[in-house]
Write a structure and sequence with these properties.
Two copies of one chain form a homodimer. By secondary structure, chain A is an all-alpha fold. Chain A has a single domain (about 5-220), classed as Methane Monooxygenase Hydroxylase, Chain G, domain 1 (Up-down Bundle), CATH 1.20.58.220. Helices cover about 85% and strands about 0% of the residues of chain A. Chain A has seven helices and no strands. In chain A, α1 packs antiparallel against α2 (about 40-70), α2 runs antiparallel to α3 and α4 packs antiparallel against α5 (about 145-170). Chain A starts with a helix and ends with a helix. Chains A and B meet through α2, α3 and α6 of A and α2, α3, α5 and α6 of B.
Chain lengths: ~220, ~220
Amino acid sequence: MRDAYHEELDALSDKLVEMTRLVRSAMARSVTALLDADLRLSEEVISADEQINKIDTEIEETVFDLMARQQPVAGDLRTVITTLRMSADLERMGDLAVHIAKTARRRHPETAVPPELQSTVLEMGQIAERMVAKAGSVIASKDVEMGLELDADDDAMDRLHRKLFDILLSPKWKHGVEPAIDITLAGRYFERFADHAVTVGEHVVYLVTGQRPQEIIENS
Amino acid sequence: MRDAYHEELDALSDKLVEMTRLVRSAMARSVTALLDADLRLSEEVISADEQINKIDTEIEETVFDLMARQQPVAGDLRTVITTLRMSADLERMGDLAVHIAKTARRRHPETAVPPELQSTVLEMGQIAERMVAKAGSVIASKDVEMGLELDADDDAMDRLHRKLFDILLSPKWKHGVEPAIDITLAGRYFERFADHAVTVGEHVVYLVTGQRPQEIIENS
């Protein structure tokens, strides 16, 4: 049977998983808003971010309370501190989805994404969505192998990010500077979103194995 | 007389201040590298980042060790957790200086900054430098008023950031898409750098007063 303390840790883990669900939904909607120039959807993402921030604050309060009452050491201490960090990563990922939604809102009723970039941006959004869903599964399952997969997903995101710049810098680019700025920023938001998902995976891998992902790869 | 525990906390604070010094120097050199297309300076910033990361890791290890041995509660607990967070902010600011240095390196021997943007970029760099220096003073002095000033500095940065876009989007812009992408990203790096400096200030304000800066402003 789990004691009260470990039940509290489980509850924290559930809250992190709930954050990944909200962030995944925010990312899905912000990408659709961006591609379809959908003002209503972008407004939804912007106002829903409050809920993500609220859970982040709740997690922080619970962690401080738990540390003060239980004074965890060693592994348990690392777990609660890591929970704080994953919560901060997920909160930031919510902000990045909001930035994408705001890009859509700023250009409405036009779309910020010219036709020749739609498929690449869609793919970046889908990878971002998969990465945060995977981060949620990794938090829930403590599956190290799945945690390590996030690195490969991030490589796929980086390739798409480079492709974005290739298209922007191609002599065929006819849309001028303003859409190029929007796409440059959106690309950066996707890239950072993926980086934070990788970091969440790394935190779980470290909690389970005591090793950083790089060490595991080097030793395998 | 300070006990051993509070001496350790002071030593952590000194390490944070040392990080602000290294980050300030990185920012100063990366901006010069960017404006002058100075390859040697940009390489310096890129390799010096290791030192910043090393201090971040040392702070993290000391904090975990200290929490395990001393089991701080209440205010002391908040101090050590906040130290971890400020260290993470400063580590990230070092990365952002590296991103600026890499922009300079990528365009070398050309400069990434066209003449009509040089003064704005210089000013953004100077504000960034002042903000991290101020963050260091705030950490050392626990001066709440100075901590709150960082918000106004950030407003100045935001104004310059908007000016950057005005120039990029002006009909007089003759440099096409590639420099616009570089400047868009550099602008984002400056903006995020300033955000992290504000966060460091907020952490100190909260540690000293128990209030978030917004609450202080609302109640004053």
